[in-house]
Write a structure and sequence with these properties.
Elements (H helix, E strand, L loop, with lengths): L19 H11 L3 H26 L9 H9 L1 H6 L16 E8 L9 E5 L8 H16 L14 H29 L4 E8 L4 H5 L11 E3 L42
Antiparallel strand pairs: 1-2, 1-3, 3-4
């Protein structure tokens, strides 16, 4: 029976070794033409720029949530591909330093000493399971914090109408989100006495961890963030208050106004 010429294979050397000529022939067959190399290089370059564009734009964000024009142009030019490939999921949250996390504290009921109102903290890993359920509340608390805009109009707004408009939009968004959360708690708890507070869970520094033996859930790391800059005078950043061992109340109001340390939060 005759053999098909198209299926005839090259003879195998008697010793079973592949010659240099065979290797060279195989390598030459895998080399792309100049046209395809240009196309592939362009595609890879666009992808690398798209991966870089989102964190670069986020890095250039100012306190008024304005971005660098160059970063905005690069991100806008590749927005279709970035959204399609899901390249905008926030690299800055995990690297290089995750930073503090933020919680929502819902105070249910009136403060009538000596009794204390009920407090619900979101997220709460001890009650919210599975983990995805906890993560949804975690994203909600972070979204509320990232949406925060102080009631004070920025000084720059007097000279820049764009900053003024941005501040108004941010403030309206924050009030809408906060009001929605409060409304939900009113329905669930069947009461109108609901107070929402933003709590920052700070990270301990090296001295606090290695020398003072602070734990990640140390009460001194939980800081109630003020709703207005006027509540922070003269300091412009929240300062944690060391809890007193003789006053283990879950709502200590002593110390710096608007920046109380919160005890009892898991």
């Amino acid at each position: 029976m005759s053999k098909d010429r198209n299926t005839t294979k090259a003879p195998i050397p008697p010793d079973g070794k592949v010659t240099d000529t065979a290797v060279k022939t195989t390598a030459e067959s895998l080399v792309l033409s100049g046209k395809w190399r240009v196309v592939l290089s362009a595609v890879l370059a666009i992808h690398v720029v798209a991966v870089f564009a989102e964190p670069f734009r986020f890095f250039t964000r100012s306190s008024q949530r304005a971005f660098s024009p160059d970063a905005g142009y690069i991100r806008g030019s590749l927005s279709a591909y970035i959204d399609f490939a899901y390249l905008h999921h926030g690299y800055f949250f995990f690297a290089p330093n995750p930073g503090p996390s933020h919680l929502i504290s819902a105070q249910i009921g009136k403060v009538t000493p000596p009794s204390q109102p009920k407090e619900i903290v979101l997220p709460d890993k001890t009650t919210q399971w599975p983990r995805l359920y906890y993560h949804r509340h975690f994203m909600l608390s972070e979204f509320l914090h990232n949406s925060f805009a102080p009631p004070e109009r920025p000084e720059e707004a007097a000279f820049d109408p764009g900053i003024d408009q941005q501040w108004r939009r941010d403030r309206e968004l924050y009030i809408a989100v906060k009001s929605s959360i409060e409304k939900r708690f009113r329905v669930l708890e069947k009461t109108d006495d609901v107070l929402i507070r933003r709590i920052e869970h700070a990270l301990p520094n090296d001295i606090q961890v290695y020398q003072e033996k602070w734990k990640l859930n140390d009460p001194r790391l939980y800081i109630v963030l003020p709703e207005s800059f006027s509540e922070q005078e003269p300091a412009l950043i929240p300062v944690p208050v060391t809890p007193s061992p003789n006053n283990p109340k879950p709502f200590p109001w002593q110390g710096v106004p608007g920046a109380e340390a919160v005890e009892g939060i898991p």
